[in-house]
Amino acid sequence: MSDSLINWFTNNLSFMPKELVVLIISMVPILELRGGIIASSLLGISMFNAIWLCMLGNIIPIPFILWFITPIFTWMKKTKLLSGIVEKLEKKSMSKSEKIQKYEFWGLALFVGIPLPGTGAWTGALIASILGIKVKKASGSILTGIIIATIIMTIISYGIPYAVGVFN
Fold first, then answer.
1. How many Å apart are CA 76 and CA 85, to the nearest integer?
2. Can you give the three-state secondary structure of 64-87, one letter per residue?
3. CA atoms within 13 A on the CB side of 116
4. pLDDT tens digits for 19-61?
5. Sign of CA dihedral 14, 117, 119, 46
6. For a FRET experiment, which of 12, 46, 61, 103 has its CA 20 to 30 Å from that of 79?
């Protein structure tokens, strides 16, 4: 699914500079930094530019989620049409929160940083908000996770292809 989303963004936003496309991809839930780094590699963006663009794109939505998702969810729960959506999101997020609750800072950082389906900064920020983790602590933990994800994805998208001669 991620591959098709990356293809959709790169094809439909081809009129934009490729760096802006990567920044946008990195801001989108599901794709986030992971998709942005892969797209950067495929678009021929240098590794160092990719790192900064993708980290920035992944960081931009996080303060808004941490500060505003709880009041937004509270409002949405009051409407018949939207309450079911909020309950599903909360249930899905909380199903992944056991380790985060147990290890808090490092649990959240590893949840955000390890590139597995359903993890990432968006979900981490949502879980942190639902669990009531203070914004300052959650922000530091999510940033640490983003750095971990950046290292892992850069090795996968740039390091391994370079090592096997794809970029030579």
1. 9
2. HHHHHHHHHHHHHHCCHHHHHHHH
3. 7
4. 999 999 999 988 999 999 999 998 999 999 999 999 999 999 9
5. negative
6. 61
